[in-house]
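Give me structure tokens for this 157-residue protein.
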Amino acid sequence: MARGSASKKTALASEQERPDDARKRERWKAHQGSIDLKRLVFLDETWAKTNMAPLRGWAARGQRLIGRAPFGHWKTMTFVAALRHDGIVAPWVIDGPINGESFRTYVERVLVPELREGDIVILDNLGSHKAPAIRKAIRAAGARLFWVLCCSCALPG
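Here you go.
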């Protein structure tokens, strides 16, 4: 008889136990069935660093493994994009890490022209996502703004 691993566990956000978050989650679950999925616009960013070279690898016995990486040019590149039901929109690469100013520039110059009246923009809780200028620009485009609290709920903003 097969046994499960004793080391597996499921971690849940402790915020889920708070009564205010539980109410918001229930309200979200009650309304999510009425949302037009074609209106959802998920927005997020990711990054890569030029010094993200592997430190270890494999080579034939007795052979030295040669690794290559840019020397002394450590840089961060950030990719920001929005995802709709039918593909990626508003892609943008930032030369450096994301911050409030660069995110605002992205929203105003790249994202907003892609938004349509009635869209629902969903963001995570990164501090630069919550700036008043971000909220104002998205709402001025006729879109609504939600922040994801955890994997199963969102909070209108």
